[in-house]
Design goal:
108 residues; single chain; mainly beta
Length: 108
């Protein structure tokens, strides 16, 4: 896990079937940013993000989604996902200054 955040992501997805990733930033959160590795962006379509990020930026090896901070309540972000290819997928996922390598299996 991450310090100050919980990521819920299925380890097995179905090709072209919808699923979701849920990130809950703890309270109070200093940094509400999510970094997703390029491998993920190449193989998974993000169809919807709720709430919308305050900013999205490309960085070396992926992209960063910044979410508006504020208030003491945990902040939940939902990303609607649709795999574009099947097979094994490994990518980096980062929150704040922490990064983890994540593996997913996309079934045909």
């Amino acid at each position: 896990g991450f310090t100050g955040a919980v990521v819920e992501l299925p380890r097995v997805l179905r090709w072209e079937a919808g699923d979701e990733m849920v990130v809950t930033f703890g309270a109070p959160a200093r940094t509400r940013s999510l970094r997703i590795g390029q491998n993920f962006a190449d193989r998974i379509a993000v169809e919807r993000i709720e709430p919308e990020p305050a900013a999205m930026r490309l960085v070396s090896g992926g992209q960063v989604l910044d979410f508006a901070a504020g208030g003491d309540a945990p902040h939940r972000v939902r990303l609607a996902l649709r795999p574009l290819h099947f097979g094994w997928l490994r990518f980096d996922l980062g929150i704040g200054g922490e990064s983890r390598s994540v593996g997913l299996l996309v079934l045909p």
